[in-house]
Design goal:
This protein has 358 residues and is α/β, with parallel strands linked by helices. It has helices at residues 19-44, 47-65, 68-76, 82-122, 148-154, 177-182, 196-210, 230-238, 260-277, 307-317, 344-357, and strands at residues 134-141, 158-159, 162-171, 186-191, 215-218, 244-254, 289-292, 322-329. The protein has 11 helices and 8 strands. A hairpin with a 2-residue loop joins β2 and β3 (162-171).
Length: 358
């Protein structure tokens, strides 16, 4: 194997392109990238983008005017060719750019989601204020025109002395969900674009908090959650025995028709949450729950799609007293589940670990 020789010889030109032309091309691209970085910093004060631009421009200008530097670096890493080193550095740069773009995309999505929910909450600004204890029932609904009416019609006027106020968040539905809900005495708001069940819950929580709800219940719009068991669900909060009450089909009765695979997955993720968050629950994905209204502000909620584990772990981290009560879960009255068939387990696992470590 021949030893490496340090040299400042220019890079071999591309076919049809002289060494001088290649040098000028790389230099021009480097200057453009550098100018772009300074412009981004001037207009958005983005130090990250400025740093990336400076690093990329430095690499291009070094290749153009001081390629011998790469011989030195290649020798330090025991590489036979500076081109291998350049390729490695290029790949690393692309990976950094990809991660940065993904981060920017996530930030943009969160910003759009926050704006969407903020505008939607304003739709409920005309809701009457009550001088008595209130229980808000938040119902996320996506294309549930066939079932939302039955759910709202079954709600009682009062539960344990609390005035019941339903809040339906139509999550970008493209059917008659909102019109069906408007026929009942409910606060009905609509996301202009779909935000996921978690996003719809956040909107409902904001509305309930803005109007001083004492207790907030969440339930599905598809008829799976039994309205007649609401008194049992909220009783531990009324009796000041809990701040977060989770309905459990495994302490009660499961008539949901879930497959054996799904039941096994729920038990597995429940076990994982119990280990990480030191809880003692049996049903981590059930959306039939009650929360003390004054404690909602303590929870950091960011998950739009897989909100159930986030709510449990956030409640545990913030010292809410968590209690489970037995409930019965029925099959959907109509329509199909909105849960994704692919990636559901991955989404739950991601939410559990991200919420636990943040």
């Amino acid at each position: 194997m021949s030893p490496l020789v340090s040299t400042n010889a220019p890079l071999a030109a591309l076919p049809g392109l002289s060494n001088q032309a290649l040098t000028l091309l790389l230099a021009a691209v480097g200057v453009v990238v550098l100018l772009w970085g300074f412009e981004r910093y001037r207009t958005t004060f983005s130090r990250v983008e400025l740093g990336i631009a400076v690093a990329v421009a430095f690499g291009l200008l070094t290749v153009a005017f001081a390629p011998g530097l790469y011989w030195t670096l290649a020798g330090a890493f025991n590489l036979e060719s500076r081109f291998i080193l350049i390729q490695i550095l290029t790949n690393v740069t692309f990976l950094v750019l990809i991660f940065y773009l993904v981060s920017q995309l996530n930030t943009s999505q969160r910003t759009i989601g926050d704006l969407t929910r903020s505008l939607t909450v304003q739709q409920a600004s005309a809701v009457a204020e009550y001088d008595e204890r209130t229980l808000y029932v938040v119902i996320p609904a996506y294309n549930e025109a066939d079932t939302i009416g039955d759910v709202l019609a079954a709600l009682p006027e009062r539960i344990h002395g609390h005035l019941v106020q339903a809040v339906v968040v139509s999550d970008g539905s493209d059917d008659a969900t909102r019109r069906a809900a408007d026929e009942y005495e409910a606060v009905v708001v609509e996301h202009p674009i779909n935000q996921g069940q978690g996003g719809a819950l956040q909107t409902g929580f904001d509305i309930a908090s803005d109007h001083g709800a004492d207790i907030v219940v969440t339930m599905d719009a598809d008829g799976q959650h039994p309205v007649d068991q609401l008194p049992d669900l909220v009783r531990p909060i009324v009796d000041d025995e809990a701040d977060y009450v989770l309905g459990s089909r495994y302490r009660g009765e499961d008539n949901s028709g879930n497959s054996m695979t799904r039941r096994g997955g729920i038990r597995t993720f429940t076990w994982l949450i119990n280990r990480l968050a030191k809880t003692d629950i049996t049903d981590c994905t059930n959306g039939f729950r009650a929360i003390r209204g004054s404690r909602l502000a303590d929870l950091t909620l960011t998950e739009e799609r897989f909100s159930a584990p986030e709510l449990i772990i956030e409640s545990r981290k913030n010292g809410l007293r968590i209690v489970e009560v037995p409930v019965t879960i029925h099959e959907r009255e109509a329509g199909e589940t909105k849960k994704p068939k692919l990636g559901y387990a991955v989404g739950l696992a991601r939410t559990i670990f991200v919420t636990w470590i943040r």
